[in-house]
Amino acid sequence: MNRKLTVAAVAAAFCALPAFAHAQDVASEIALLRGGEPGWYGSILGGVNMQSDSSFSSGLAGGKVAAEFDTGYGVVGAIGYDFGRVAQWGGFRTELEIGYRQNDVDSLSIGGNNLANSDGDATVWSGMVNVYHDLYLPASRLTPYIGLGVGAAYVEYDSFSAAGAPGAMSDDDTVLAYQGIVGASYALSPAMSLVGEYRYFGTQAVEVTSAPADGAVSSSDTYGSHNVMVGLRINF
Fold it and tell me: Does the structure show a pLDDT above 50 at 8?
């Protein structure tokens, strides 16, 4: 009886070997697709940019001018280096990024009263150094990640104007910038991944000066925006 059980067990083990080997092949293929090996990469992402409201000092009787913005767009491109798997649960990447964001003025108001025929736009060019932590999921092409970035931003407010507000404000400033990132990549092939992420992008106070007709009042306000982006990452 014991001999029959032993033979059956050996036969079952031999039958299971192809399935085990196939599972190992699938796991290896997914690991290759997902990455985990050191190397350079490039990425390009674009999407919606939702700029936070801003307020500026004014020589007008109503005091500060508040600005609300339409939903705009943003584009970022980066060159980075993936350090590969540093532990079973993940790895790290670092990159240099150039970004552009643009939003049109939706409305300008003074003392809570909206001004008619509001116009203008806000644009931001940024250069950032980002650091990411990739979180590897077992046997999955999906890789969640978190990231932080710091750098500089050139913020320009162009032709802010409205009926009842003399002149138009056009000014710019270069300031310290930062961002927090939460996203995930999905491996399409060993060389390409689909990427989707949320970012909060912010700056220190932006110093601007209102139009001479408005008394040339200096003002400052931080820039902030929420970004939802999708794009591709290419491994070199």
Answer: no
